[in-house]
Write a structure and sequence with these properties.
This protein is of the alpha+beta class. It folds into two domains: about 210 residues, 2-Layer Sandwich (PmbA/TldD fold), CATH 3.30.2290; about 200 residues, no CATH class. It has nine helices and 23 strands. The strands form three sheets. Strands 9, 14, 15, 16, 17, 18, 19, 22 and 23 form a nine-stranded mixed beta sheet that branches. Strand 16 and strand 17 form a beta hairpin. Helix 1 crosses helix 2 and helix 3 packs parallel to helix 4. The longest helix has 20 residues. The protein is globular and about 75 Å long.
Amino acid sequence: MKNLDIIKSVLSNQKGTDGYSVHATDTVSYELFFVHGNLETVRKSEHSSAQASVYVKHDGKLGSSNFGIDSSASARDIEEKAAQAASKALMIFDEPYELVGGGKFVGEIESNLCGKDEKQIAADVAKAVIYACNEKDCDINALEIFVVTKTSTVLNSLGADKSQTKHTVSIEAIPTCNTGKESVELFETYEYGNFNKEAVMREIAARVQDVSARAKAKKPERTLDCPVILNPYDIREMFEEIVADADYSRVYLHSNLMSVGDKWQTNPVGDKLTVTMRGAIDGSPASALFDRDGTTLKDVVIIKDGVLTANFGSNRFAQYLGKDATGALGCINVEAGNTPCGQLMKEPHLECVYLSGLQVDLYNDYIGGEIRLAYYFDGEKRIPVTGIAMSGKLSEVLNTLTLSKETVVSGAYKGPEKIKLGKLTIF
């Protein structure tokens, strides 16, 4: 961000404040837009912005207030916003804490996109997506590809000056199937920290098959009674809810369900869960070297064999609790099981492909959701079904997990490609 030096100078000399922090981002995005396989628009965009916080000590407490800064902001603009923020900070009565210590750091998150030509990457992604769409009467109605380089910088009044650069590829696609009577489509979004042509082709081909199946899917004629299999997106949603309960902020606010030593799996008859929160996972777009406070991220095992073993979290709440700051860890690594996907899916089951949104309520011990598309395997045939739902007690379901041997990276999640769950009622 071109005016970072101005921002730093103004905030360092701002009257009525006792500290500041700045989180700035510079984003360069190369973008392709297709309609029915035809390239319609190519553009390159650049955007810079910053979020600043000022801190004021008063009445034995610490007040803070945030404000945004545009890359075109002048010193006077910043001074005015900082003065307004300082006044607002006097109305905040947080417990005092120290900002992250100083030091210069420049890093780049590992990726096979580093140093590659953005135009070539975008072209390769487009070819992979379009080539993978080979289902009869189906195509990619709309396709958007973004090759992004983002640099994040953290500055603060204790001398922190850290920057990290991340490379990602994002895909937004609408696979569509025309049956003659109606048109059925699904909206898909993907973000990758690495580009793997074969993996993208497999994913798109599977989704095109799903949209074709969605056009044929019907509500089962009888009530289904079988295990449920979840795929990466919904697995990720389930674990995002579980790990959030271990965050320092929830512990400090006494809103956490589980304390260290408590059992997520009270009587496991399936695989035992081991979950590690990580700063970076190869191929994950959520990877980072430090968080918005400038805290260097430290991996921590939070669940071992189904038992909560540790908490994690930001600098502020770590100080409140007298714990080591791990940083705001964004990547979830679930240890794989020993059962191959083929074996896991050998017996009758219901494989969920599209839910209206997996619902996980820790405090009401609930897991469930409406099923838009699933495949019911009766032991012989794989039948697309829709118009059903599932529900169960989360505590009981977690005791029944079978984790696949194969793993996958999906957003912030790395872990079993498929997970089989029992104790769910399908209706």
